Amino acid sequence: MTSATTPDPRAGRHCHNVVNPFHSTHYFSPDLGDELAKLGVEDRSAGYFAIRSAAMGAVGPGTVTATFYNFSHALVARHVPAVWDTVTPEAALAARLRAADRTLRRLLGEETLASPEMAEAAKLALRAAEAGGRSARPLFAAHADLPVPDAPHLAYWHAATLLREHRGDSHLIALLDAELDGLEALVTHNAGGRGMSYLGIMRTRGWSAEEWSAAQERLRGRGLLDADGELTEAGIRLRKELEDTTDRLDRAPYAHLGAEGVARLTALGGAFTQAAMAAGAFPAELFGR
Q1: Is residue 20 within 8 Å of residue 56, measured between CB atoms?
Q2: Which of 214, 256, 259, 273 sits in a 20 to 30 Å window from 187, CA-based?
């Protein structure tokens, strides 16, 4: 592929950043809780572990902790494998798709979902996902085995899921190479002013304040965090290297799509994400410092 058609690695990251929220809308939606409650799953964490791991089958807590990476194993083990006594992986996947459908219809409206732009976004995102590598990417590989939904907005949501998990699996490879465990990754991400807020992390990831403080001390010992909990120059450099490595490991889908296709998907995905955010898709208190 020539340089004229190969996108800059940062273009792939930017594309992911606007496509990923389209996938993530259902995580914060009351529709997901409603669909899971109909199946007997009332706990939010149990539901999350079930729907996101269901593509891998009725896996145990070790697999969920390994593939999700930044959740406390104690929290995971509290709900897995017990959740599979209530709901099968197949039922969890079906509930998730119903919730995504309801959520997107509520946030974006029927006209947007039936638009030519939505169908175009689905086609582009699916084309990108075709080039995703399965090796050492368990969540991507498992979701790549699922059928593509017929409705354009759900096909786009499915493709967004694939692209999200491909980059996520790639990022875990980078984190392991940097010798950051799941909690240390959260602490450094939060210290850089990105990702979930401290409140959001503590509410959803299962860590204690003591474990957070211990992770901060380990990072100070490596010279990555200062006394005030801010990233040092070395910490800032490490976070940049992590994102650059992730860009490199995640480049195949966007190289396959080409620069023009990436730019078009970014424009379409950005518009859909902005509309969803304007409709209140995400709780503001969960993000930022």
Answers
A1: no
A2: 273
Task: State pLDDT tens for residues 263-282.
Answer: 999 999 999 999 999 999 99
What residues form DSSP beta bridges with 225? Answer: 231
The separation between CA 33 and the C-alpha centre of its own chain, rounded to angstroms, equals: 18
**Tokens 């891998």 belong to which residue?**
56
7 has a pLDDT exceeding 90: no
Confidence at 288, pLDDT banded by 50, 70, 90: low
User: What are the pLDDT digits (tens) for 150-197?
Assistant: 999 999 999 999 999 999 999 999 999 999 999 999 999 999 887 788
For 111, 183, 191, 221, 237, the CA distances from 230, given in Å and listed in that order, are 45, 16, 5, 13, 13
- Distance CA(201)–CA(32), nearest Å, equals 20
Residues near 250 by Cβ (< 8 Å), separated by ≥ 6? 12, 13, 16, 166, 167, 170, 171
Buried b (16+ CB within 10 A) or exposed e, 228-253: eeebbeebeebbeebbebbbebbbbb
Backbone angles phi, psi at 183, to 5 degrees: -70, -40
282 contacts 187 by C-beta, under 8 angstroms: no
- pTM beyond cutoff 0.85: yes
Give Rg (Cα) of the chain.
Answer: 19
DSSP state string for 224-241: SB-TTS-B-HHHHHHHHH
Q: Which residue(s) pair with 196 in the sheet?
A: 287
